[in-house]
Amino acid sequence: MSLISVEGVTVGYAGGPALRDLTMRIERGEIVTVIGPNGSGKSTLIKTILGVLTPTKGRVSRERGLSIGYVPQELAIDASLPMTVARFLSLPRRQDTALIVEMLRRVGVPTVADKQLSSLSGGQFQRVLLARALLARPDILILDEPTQGLDQPGVAAFYRLIEEVRQEMGCAILLVSHDLHVVMSATDRVICLNGHICCEGAPDAVMDAPEYRALFGEGTGGALALYQHHHDHDHDHGPEHAH
Amino acid sequence: MTALLNDFLVRATLAGIGLALAAGPLGCFVVWRRMAYFGDATAHAAVLGVALALAFDVSVFAGTSLVALAMALAVSSLASRGHAMDTSLGVLSHAALAIGLVAISFVPAVRVDLSAYLFGDILAVGVGDLAVIWGGALAVCALLAWRWSSLLAATLNADLASSAGIDPKREQLVLTLAMAVVVALAIKVVGALLIAAMLIIPAAAARGISRSPEGMAVSAVALAAISVVGGLQGSLAFDTPAGPSIVATAAALFALSLVVSQARSRAR
Fold first, then answer.
1. Does residue B101 sit within a domain?
2. Of the partner residues B150, B163, B204, the one whose CB lies closest to the CB of residue A70
3. Count of domains in chain B?
4. Per the domain annotation, does B248 fall within a domain?
5. What is the ipTM of this complex?
6. Distance (Å, whole) CA A49 – CA A11
7. Any CB–CB contact under 8 A between B167 and chain A?
8. Residue B217 pLDDT > 80, yes or no?
9. CATH number at residue B114
């Protein structure tokens, strides 16, 4: 059985469905990257998988006893809430102090355990969030645009870290990203999302797919195309198709 | 002990400390979750609760806690549907206050002292009130202590809490319930207009001197209790209204905490 399987899922907001009839699976140990323009339903997909949103149609099933490590997009901690990093990592379940220290060392922020959350830099905070997700001993790590607010070297270092950690722990990864190039080098399978699955497959195959080009443009112009693109076409084929 | 309780000032002090016990930790969540206006709306609804309780001849505590609970539920369901909270809370809060005042005007004046409900009547607290206040406050403390970790996790980030198997909506409901009870307890102590102040000001003052959420909750209780004692003594010495004097003392402590935390951060 797959770790997570999403079958024929439609999720609606007041303004119409954010996801339509979406089917996908994630297998043990696999790295899956979801890309798509703003408003394409990426975060909706993550929230549906986490169980925050309930699909209006279809179903999401998780393997029994599945442990999910979730790294959110950006976590705005209200400055009025005093909390040390160590305490944060022990919420909601108490963690062994030695384990916390070890995990913080592993993600490259060995000295922050007693610091206040509000005093961390963006890069430190993302690493703390990763440590928190890893402490759950996840079968799957779900990362929702985890490098927003990091500079270029920070982004590269963060993805290297994720790759290393995955090799050590063997967990599957579901990554939502805008960082197209980094994504392509590390991932097993890419899902190109725009309310539905536009195309899906190995990174090379997806890059050549006309649907991908329609969505992201060609070559390095892609980043620009991301903001100019208006997605008004509708595929008349199913959500999964071979390339 | 009974002789001690015969002194109105002892009863008033104990009532205030009972309120501080519940308002301290709940007030921290109000500050962390930016629910200040939520507290106001719930407290204002309590005035309507008073009117209804008098009209239907039920206990004021029951009336205020029920109407406050209805208001708190209405507000949190609006919030979860993503309405523009600032405006809708403003409408609800002031409408509840105005309708409550209108409703109370129908009750014969001999039966109701309006200012006692608006500004509190802590010096008239009886032994029975004291039992209700302490019972309610301990219940709220027990509820918050039981849900503490889940509440904190849900306050940090709803999605993160969901991924750890916590239902943020249920935790919101816990706070909603606690809020309704605290409002019903506090109306006698500081009055409907100043309940939100007793939630926010001690918690805000505690922020500057705390390094952990638990520390902040305990400090908020201590600061609220000091405000009660100081406010009551001041009210006696200068012949000022008790409820507002308590809140004014809390505000002074808040100002002091700003100075202390600034001095600390400069020393670092």
1. yes
2. B163
3. 1
4. no
5. 0.79
6. 11
7. no
8. yes
9. 1.10.3470.10
Query: How confident is the model at residue A181, as a pLDDT?
Result: 67
Cα B2 to Cα A220, B10, B14, B127, B228: the distances in Å are: 83, 11, 13, 9, 22
Query: What is the span of the domain harbouring residue B111?
Result: 2-195
Interface test with A, best of B160, B167, B258 (most A CBs within 10 A): B160
Residue B188 and residue B192: Cα distance in Å, rounded? 8
SS3 track for chain B: CHHHHCCHHHHHHHHHHHHHHHHHHHHHHHHHCCCHHHHHHHHHHHHHHHHHHHHHCCCHHHHHHHHHHHHHHHHHHHHHCCCCHHHHHHHHHHHHHHHHHHHHHCCCHHHCCHHHHHHCCHHHCCHHHHHHHHHHHHHHHHHHHHHHHHHHHHHHCHHHHHHCCCCHHHHHHHHHHHHHHHHHHHHHHCCHHHHHHHHHHHHHHHHCCCCCHHHHHHHHHHHHHHHHHHHHHHHHHHCCCHHHHHHHHHHHHHHHHHHHHHHHHHHC
- B14-73 pLDDT per residue, tens: 999 999 999 999 999 999 988 888 888 899 999 999 988 988 888 888 999 999 999 988
CA gap A149, A122 in Å, rounded: 7
Contacts of A93 in chain B (CB under 8 A): 149, 164
Per the domain annotation, does B236 fall within a domain? no
For residues B75 and B244, the model is more confident at B244
The pTM (predicted TM-score) of the whole model is 0.84
Chain A hits for B163, Cβ within 8 Å: 50-51, 68-70, 142
How open is the CA angle B9-B11-B13, to the nearest 5 degrees? 70
What pLDDT is stored for residue B231 in this prediction? 96
Encode pLDDT of A192-222 as tens digits. Answer: 888 888 888 887 777 777 777 777 765 554 4
